[in-house]
């Protein structure tokens, strides 16, 4: 056990985690040169196309260092703030972390937030300065930043390059020398923590675990503590690039178990595995339950596919524990699910994965956050959806979730970023110069304001230099109103939104204009209105397509033309009474991209 090292790689987006992981795999001969491809550990097509890591990936490597054989368990983690739950789970299964900082960009917001996660879990941090081969690298400046941040010696920082392979041997040596071996008692009852799971259509559900105490043998009768279910360990093993079956997985190791589990509900990430005959005394403190930030409805395009969508969501939830969902129904869209996501990118990825992995075409409604409504009789109501809003006569006040936002940027862009945050109802709390040209700005602002397009606009005003990270700080009272969108007097509940009273008129006008462009013309006029309660605040009209019924009259008395036009007018009136307006899918999405 003293020769096992468990570590993860943490960094901001695009600082070269996956590339460096490729070099470590190559250096330890875990991957032959024939098998190696860019981002070897990212096994989803989506990850390769976008060049981001979405899932944590665990892999075991063997290293011979100074005549001794060591086993290294590496977990490569995502860098985007929306996937920080993956990072927190990976950190729980490790004793050390490689903190990677891009030598040309320096420390950014997620670097700091992921670092704090690692420090809270008492991990040994090894700072690595990556991308040293770039002409724009500023090693001395960035080293100063790292020393300020974690208080290490300058000599502890390893200079490396994932592309050319400089410094990879130094990193492996540091992993062996600095990261402590796992602590645990091989003789104690089995205690293993589930940190991830995947669905395999042939084998059922495969759970990934890390053994803290004891050992697990093939064929053992095991029990999952939280769910109380018991299974036979049909196959256990360790995670190489492929799964490698073993007879026994010992203390400190990371492995997988296949036990013929069919139901997604039976595996919970953070659960403890133990033996049925000799159970451990207490379960491991798992991860805190994930708190979704953004809520949106996901509906099948064809209502008959509701059950298939449920199955797809359950399988996806296994692979992505931060997805939460519950059934709901909507007047416009039928039956579907109310889903909770960690952010907009997370929502986009889930939608893509449903389409690619399960062939489900879905409609996503306007995303929003949860509000807390307080009624005059003292009752509290949680509103996940604008349609849950109580009657205005009973309502006392509404609270909305606030976040603490941390933005790190170049000093040239401070003005524009402050304007953007103040537009979004943010309050400036602090401003610290990390170096002469880098500023850290802290704001408190409503979560609802950053849900839509905040991240994109932040990147635009800062020319891509600002990095952004946030965490929730609780609920605050706010002056919110419900804005409805009506088409020919019928309310479209999927387009309703809770907005701040000051922004309602502006947003209502923009929504109507946008919908007018997107709704196809019919044979009758369509009135698009935005309303606060019974008060209409904006209106646009989609004009009717008109057939020229008088074309066949050439000359003659005007009354002939009048007769034909009157007949057409009656037909249009009847059509308007029975005609329904189809709202195309892009209309739901375009509302999100209002500037």
What's a concise summary of this model?
Helix content is 27%, strand content 34%. It has 595 residues and is an alpha+beta fold. The strands form 6 sheets. Strands 11-10-16-7-8-15-12-13 form an 8-stranded antiparallel sheet.
Description:
Helices cover 27% and strands 34% of the residues. The longest helix has 21 residues, at 558-578. The model has no long low-confidence stretch (mean pLDDT 80). It is an alpha+beta fold. The chain is globular, with a radius of gyration of 28 Å. Helix 7 (306-319) crosses helix 8 (344-358).
State the fourth-level CATH superfamily of the largest domain: P-loop containing nucleotide triphosphate hydrolases
CATH architecture of the largest domain: 3-Layer(aba) Sandwich
**CATH topology label of the largest domain:** Rossmann fold
Q: Termini, distance in Å?
A: 57 Å
Ranges where pLDDT stays below 50 over 5 or more residues in a row are none
Mean pLDDT: 80
What is the CATH level 1 assignment of the largest domain?
A: Alpha Beta
Q: Identify the strand order in the major beta sheet.
A: 11-10-16-7-8-15-12-13
Number of helices: 14
* Rg of Cα set: 28 Å
Number of domains: 5
Strand content: 25-35%
Oligomer: single chain
Helix content: 25-40%
> Total number of β-strand segments?
31
What is the molecular shape?
globular
């Amino acid at each position: 056990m003293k020769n096992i090292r468990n570590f993860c790689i943490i960094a901001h987006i695009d600082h070269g985690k996956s590339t460096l992981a490729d070099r470590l795999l190559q250096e330890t001969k875990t991957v032959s040169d024939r098998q190696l491809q860019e981002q070897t550990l990212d096994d989803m097509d989506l990850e390769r196309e976008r060049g981001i890591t979405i899932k944590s990936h665990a892999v075991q490597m063997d290293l011979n260092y100074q005549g001794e054989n060591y086993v290294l368990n590496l977990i490569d983690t995502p860098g985007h703030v929306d996937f920080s739950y993956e990072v927190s789970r990976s950190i729980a299964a490790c004793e050390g972390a490689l903190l990677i900082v891009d030598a040309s960009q320096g420390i950014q917001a997620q670097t700091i937030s992921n670092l704090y996660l690692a420090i809270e879990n008492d991990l040994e941090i090894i700072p690595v300065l990556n991308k040293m081969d770039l002409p724009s690298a500023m090693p001395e400046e960035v080293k100063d930043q790292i020393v300020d941040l974690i208080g290490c010696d300058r000599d502890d920082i390893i200079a490396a390059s994932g592309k050319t392979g400089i410094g990879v041997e130094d990193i492996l040596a540091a992993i062996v020398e600095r990261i402590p071996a796992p602590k645990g008692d091989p003789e104690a009852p089995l205690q293993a923590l589930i940190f991830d799971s995947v669905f395999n259509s042939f084998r059922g559900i495969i759970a990934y675990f890390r053994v803290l105490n004891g050992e697990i043998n093939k064929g053992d009768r095991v029990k999952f503590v939280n769910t109380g279910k018991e299974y036979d360990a049909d196959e256990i093993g360790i995670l190489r690039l492929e799964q490698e079956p073993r007879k026994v997985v010992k203390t400190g190791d990371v492995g997988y178990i296949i036990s013929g589990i069919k139901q997604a509900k039976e595996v919970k990430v953070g659960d403890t595995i133990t033996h049925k005959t000799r159970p451990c005394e207490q379960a491991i403190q798992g991860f805190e339950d994930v708190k979704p930030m953004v809520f949106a409805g996901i509906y099948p395009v064809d209502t008959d596919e509701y059950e298939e969508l449920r199955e797809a969501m359950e399988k996806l939830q296994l692979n992505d524990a931060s997805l939460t969902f519950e059934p709901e129904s909507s007047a416009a869209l039928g039956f579907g699910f109310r889903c909770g996501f960690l952010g907009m990118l997370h929502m986009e990825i889930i939608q893509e994965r449903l389409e690619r992995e399960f062939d489900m075409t879905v409609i996503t409604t306007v995303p929003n956050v949860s509000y807390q409504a307080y009624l005059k009789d003292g009752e509290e109501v949680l509103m996940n959806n604008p349609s849950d809003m109580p009657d205005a006569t009973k309502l006392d006040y509404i609270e909305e979730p606030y976040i603490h936002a941390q933005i790190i940027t170049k000093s040239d862009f401070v003005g524009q970023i402050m304007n953007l945050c103040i537009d979004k109802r943010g309050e400036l709390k602090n401003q610290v110069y990390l170096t002469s040209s880098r500023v850290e700005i802290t704001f408190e602002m409503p979560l609802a304001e950053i849900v839509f397009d905040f991240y994109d606009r932040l990147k635009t005003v800062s020319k891509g230099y600002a990095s952004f990270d946030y965490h929730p700080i609780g609920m605050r009272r706010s002056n919110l109103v419900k804005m409805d969108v009506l088409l020919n007097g019928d309310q479209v509940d999927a387009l309703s939104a809770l907005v701040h009273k000051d922004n309602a008129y502006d947003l209502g006008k923009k929504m109507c204009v946008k919908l007018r462009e997107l709704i196809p013309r019919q044979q009758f006029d369509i009135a698009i209105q935005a309303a606060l309660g019974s008060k209409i605040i904006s209106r646009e009209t989609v004009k009717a397509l008109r057939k020229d019924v008088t074309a066949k009259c050439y000359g003659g008395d005007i009354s002939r033309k009048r007769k034909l036009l009157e007949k057409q007018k009656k037909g249009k009136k009847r059509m308007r009474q029975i005609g329904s307006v189809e709202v195309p899918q892009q209309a739901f999405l375009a509302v999100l991209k209002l500037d």
